[in-house]
Amino acid sequence: MRYRELLLIPLAWGHVLIQDVLVGVHSIDLDYVALRWASLGWRVYDFLLLTFAFAHGVNGLRRVLNDYIRQDSTRKAVTWLLFALWLILSLIGAMAIVGGVRSP
User: Fold this and answer.
1) C-alpha pair distances (Å), 91 with each of 39, 47, 84
2) What are the two backbone dihedrals, phi and then psi, of residue 90, each rounded to the nearest 5 degrees?
3) CA 41, CA 13: separation in Å to the nearest integer?
4) Are 9 and 53 in contact (CB under 8 A)?
5) Is residue 9 part of a domain?
6) CATH number, domain containing residue 79
7) pLDDT tens-digit series, residues 58-102
């Protein structure tokens, strides 16, 4: 988990630097995203950012819920439910990254 979070820091700051500072928020449209996703490297970058950031958030939610859930069986069920939620939504995001790109 710590390695993932160490990788998340440069991925997130790189995304902010590129999208907000270099390109500018007002210049981003569907054509820009399609042009960017034409490269496999950008798709991998965005997929890693999606999965690492979402896993970080789900893990934080799991830790907060563990403070309030006292029964081990309920805690285990919630953990598996959160894992399933993370997996399903990450796969949907991956499908959007891979299949949701039109030609630039």
Assistant:
1) 20, 10, 11
2) -70, -40
3) 17
4) no
5) yes
6) 1.20.1300
7) 999 999 999 999 999 999 999 999 999 999 999 998 888 888 666
